[in-house]
């Protein structure tokens, strides 16, 4: 014996999507690891570095904490929207220039040497609570 439903496929799909959304909202952010608040400044050859993206990649993997420097070179990290900081523990730090189109204009390259970004040797150990990490990068 079969039971015929009065619901269309569109209605069933809508109900499933609604249930999924309610599930996501109801669960909150239980998947966020322990975070430490991180702030500091970035200088290049002693001068404040504006428009630089600062990323802390946990040695354990996962999402990076990311921030952008202001005109004074100040940054703070955000893990996800509404959650400031980055994962607690050892991290590799990468600092790159923020380009308006995502890439440097033709004929230009990032003034930040690779040892601070694509081949970064910057390491910091993020602790629970507040952390201040200043970076004075040298181009020479």
TrEMBL record:
It comes from the Bacteria. PROSITE patterns: PROKAR_LIPOPROTEIN. Residues 97-140 are annotated as: Disordered. This is Carboxypeptidase regulatory-like domain-containing protein. The lineage of its organism: Bacteria, Pseudomonadati, Planctomycetota, Planctomycetia, Planctomycetales.
